[in-house]
Amino acid sequence: MLDKVIFLGTGAGMPTNKRNVSSTAVFFNKGGDYWLFDCGEGTQQRIFAAGLKLSKLKGIFISHLHGDHLFGLPGLLATRGLQGIEDDIDIFGPVGLQAYLGNCFDYSKTHIPYSYYINEMKLEKYKTKKLLWEKDNIKVSCASLEHQVDCFGYAIYEKYTKKNLLVNKLLRLGITPGPIYRKIKEKDQVILENGKVLKSGNFIKELKIVKKISYCSDTIFSKNSVELSQDADLLIHEATFSDENKVEAKNSFHSTIEDAVRVAKSANAKRLVLTHISPRYHKSKKCKHSWDKFKEEATRRYSGVFLAEDFLEIKI
């Protein structure tokens, strides 16, 4: 069950004292298992600082091969081996990821004592949204974004059924709350103390629940971002620049606050988190590019927006 998101790195381009470069952990069950979306330099240090375990890391999704989204991956995989973790792991990313990791490990003479499976995505296959991975009730879809290099956004879906007891109907029969309520949820029929047989289906309403997170990293405004984010419970979208730097954003194939908000509104996303924020925006009063102005612009454009900071945790 999709549980929460923890932001491990929320800066763009290079790490600073306050922000590491891109990495986001998505937790998909109460046991603490998680996936990693992007793995910039220093990600494993952020993982340890957040109190997370590499043994709980079950999959890695790389958006593109720029260093601030990738340079932490070889070290993380090596540390996983040094810790004696033997579980195999799936890694998804653009074409070239296999060669990059292979060369890193060959030149550094690094032995990885477990199997890691590189699932490379070809740009032409994901020009529109397509299913990438599926297990049990969780699916991951993928689509290409608009950046200087091949770049992909992801949508994580979970579908499950929730059983709601029709309590008023039970009370009208004189069946008050207690252990019997759990039995009605778990069994097809139950026998009451008076010997009457109760068919559970008559007292349960099943609700189909869908949870969805979308992750749209480096890109200008993209129709695929909207498609991936349609009705998302949480949209994680890059906003490298404020609107006053829209020319620079366009030239570098990055989004402004306005671009991210446009995606959120077009997709009817329930919540928006802005991440991948340029290091020029910080909280120093002497800073030319004011963090306060950046924050004010974001909140003015989208009520309830979150501005991601390292270690921010959001429940789904």
Summary, kept brief:
By secondary structure, this protein is of the alpha/beta class.
List the helices and strands and how they pair.
Elements: E1 4-9, E2 23-27, E3 34-37, H1 43-49, E4 57-61, H2 73-82, E5 89-94, H3 97-107, E6 116-121, E7 130-135, E8 138-144, E9 152-165, H4 167-172, H5 179-186, E10 189-191, E11 197-199, E12 204-216, H6 223-228, E13 234-238, H7 246-251, H8 257-267, E14 272-275, H9 291-301, E15 306-307, E16 313-315
Parallel strand pairs: 3-4, 4-5, 5-6, 12-13, 13-14, 14-15
Antiparallel strand pairs: 1-2, 1-16, 2-3, 7-8, 8-9, 9-12, 10-11
Walkthrough of the structure:
The protein folds into two domains: 4-162 and 206-315, Metallo-beta-lactamase, Chain A (4-Layer Sandwich); 163-205, no CATH class. The model has no long low-confidence stretch (mean pLDDT 93). Helices cover 24% and strands 29% of the residues. The strands form three sheets. Strands 6-5-4-3-2-1-16 form a seven-stranded mixed beta sheet. Strands 7-8-9-12-13-14-15 form a seven-stranded mixed beta sheet. The protein has helices at 43-49, 73-82, 97-107, 167-172, 179-186, 223-228, 246-251, 257-267, 291-301; strands spanning 4-9, 23-27, 34-37, 57-61, 89-94, 116-121, 130-135, 138-144, 152-165, 189-191, 197-199, 204-216, 234-238, 272-275, 306-307, 313-315. The chain is built from nine helices and 16 strands. By secondary structure, the chain is an alpha/beta fold.
Tell me roughly what share of residues is in helical segments.
Answer: 10-25%
Largest sheet composition: 7 strands, mixed
Instruction: Give the name of the CATH superfamily of the largest domain.
Output: Ribonuclease Z/Hydroxyacylglutathione hydrolase-like
Kindly provide the name of the CATH class of the largest domain: Alpha Beta
Net shape? globular
Strand content: 25-35%
- Please, how many helices? 9
Largest sheet strand order: 6-5-4-3-2-1-16
Give me the CATH architecture of the largest domain, please. Answer: 4-Layer Sandwich
Number of strands: 16
Structural class of the helix and strand makeup?
alpha/beta
Low-confidence stretches: none
Order of helices and strands: EEEHEHEHEEEEHHEEEHEHHEHEE
Domains (count): 2
CATH fold-level label of the largest domain: Metallo-beta-lactamase, Chain A
Q: Mean of the pLDDT scores? A: 93
Amino- and carboxy-terminal Cα gap = 10 Å
Radius of gyration: 23 Å
